[in-house]
Amino acid sequence: MYRLHRQDDHDSHAHSPLAHKHDHCCAGSAVAADIKLAEASAHARLSRFRIEAMDCPTEQTLIQNKLAKLAGIEQLEFNLINRVLGVRHVLDSTAPIEQAIASLGMTAVDMDVDSAEPPIAAGPVSRWPLWVSGVMAVAAEVLHFSGHAPGWLIASVALVSIAMGGLGTYKKGWIALKHWNLNINALMSIAVTGAVLIGQWPEAAMVMFLFTVAELIEARSLARARDAIGGLMQLAPDLATVREADGQWREVAADAVVPGKIVRVRPGERIALDGEVISGQSTVDQAAITGESLPVEKALGDPVFAGTLNQVGSLDIRVTAAAGQSTLARIIQAVEQAQGAKAPTQRFVDQFSRVYTPLVFVLALAVALVPPLLGAAWFDWVYRALVLLVVACPCALVISTPVTLVSGLAAAARKGILVKGGAYLESGHRLRLIALDKTGTLTHGKPVQTDFEVLGSADATQAATVAASLAARSDHPVSKAIAQANRQGLAEVEQFQAMPGRGVRGEVAGQVYHLGNQRLAEELGGLSPAARQRLDALEREGKSAVVLLSGNAALALIAVADTLKDSSREAIAQLHAMGIQTLMLTGDNAHTAQAIAVQVGIDEARGNLLPADKLAAIEALESQGQSVGMVGDGINDAPALARASIGFAMGAAGSHTAIETADVALMDDDLRKLPTFIQLSRQTRAILIQNIGLALVVKAVFLAMTFAGMATLWMAVFADMGVSLLVVFNGLRLLRV
User: Fold this and answer.
1) Residue 350 neighbours by CB under 8 Å, 6+ apart
2) Which of 437, 588, 637, 720 is catalytic?
3) 437: annotated active-site residue
4) pTM of the full predicted structure?
5) What domains can you pick out in the chain, each with its CATH number?
6) What is the mean pLDDT of the chain?
């Protein structure tokens, strides 16, 4: 994203409500100017344009420089992979924007106006001019090396080759030069023209042909990254089978279905909209949304998501979100926004290229003029200057970063990990400590009965029935867990009474019973030393223990606990194997926190924490220079999530709030996605460093070879475009992770 009213770029997650976490505001020098800007921003609107010719930083720079001069433009958002330009402006119409882009030789289609119709696909491009160019370039080289062909014939053949393969490059180069932009097309046009002027006809033809072929291959490779994101959009079907008011089932466009409608999904069909099952049973493959490898059982009341595959049974679903507000639609929107957010490496590359290209261009001029003026041969040094012009373009550097990051974002999305910006994907490798909430993160967040121990000679069946009958009358989470565990054959309870802070009381079959905590049992005098010791042991295990009493006689001990997720231990072990420390931050008591930490293998646990305490803990860790990740539910832990270097929201599928607020959203409740993300981040970072290192080394080598008189024009083209292709293909490797 590029902001016209900012000097530097701090937009890696400007779309997020938590953007204040890393944003640094720039104070204006004039109050009046600030007031005008605020007034303009209040009335600004965002227009989105599809520009088919905009698929690399060359076109982005041209558009950026052109629109920067247009009054009324506030902000530009570039999505090169999808060829979409967002313009925030206060203009009455978009005509000036479209005209400015047209002056650059590109066509901007207003997506707001033409969104109902898909963009018209360009017809197949004829390749015969390129084949003719290649044949003629080879012919010019053969005639030149034969030593017998007249010069006019070699020149004629070379001109045909340049005309057939290079007119597009010359046109783009001329537009760039008119706007004082030294992009690859301008540099290549100057280099080829210079080669012609010094009589290097065969080499000029071969350079232009090789450049055109390399551009074609690069465009094909970029299309792979584009398809990786585009594939998400094809998951949800366009039609849905809807029950009409007359009871008949009809196929209608999914976009036209409103929440509350009933949709039927047959076996083998993809689900078109988010909803809730109201009839039927089936298994659903929801790997596209959550990344789960196994199908999930769906029955009455279970949520389903657009883009997932219904497998064996027919399902009737009540729609809960319109097509544009589905979980899948929000994922696609988040991924597209993430592509426009620049990561630190990309900002570095942009700054480097802004300095590098003009510097090498000036150096080329000096090489062409200074040595000859001092008596050296004009031909040799002008030729070396032309080679420098080809080397001057930082294409490999500029294109490698967005391709690598988009590939990583797509790979993460396929695994059910929604990353809200390239900055987070890249910086994940720095995490050395992960703080985790307990409830809903390490545990299921739903207490269940774990222990039922009869005391003395009490009847186990009768005790279980009485306990469940009393618990069923209470709304306390512990009572609900006990009632859920013994749902069969509940008895009638009379004279029921809730005893806040202690438990409940009631009569069953004329007998008075109490179900409550240790405090209540102590008051009634019903705890023996052995029972008291066992109660303490259960609570040290992190469980909530209650006692069933008849009169002052304890009949049974019952323990309830929030059970661990099966994936928690494995995830923590994987984090430790990666050299990452773990810390639990929970509002539960210290005994429970420590017990869960021991079971899972967490390094340190802190209990009795309020949200403000969790925030303070993260701030203290960050102040020590550590890069800290925080994992929570995306809502209750929002302050700590916002303060952490990266905030991870668990179980974000279906939760619009979590998708919109988290830096990284783990779409299901599988904590093992956390080490997967960190591993992917490390691989992304490694590939970025490989690409930058390769590009810089090749540039340095060719600069040295040029001054030594060892480099030729066609070698420079091979090196420049070859490295561009290598870094693109290297970045695409992330799609196979």
Assistant:
1) 9, 342, 398
2) 437
3) yes
4) 0.67
5) 2-110 (3.30.70.100), 128-229+336-405+683-736 (no CATH), 239-325 (2.70.150.10), 445-563 (3.40.1110.10)
6) 81
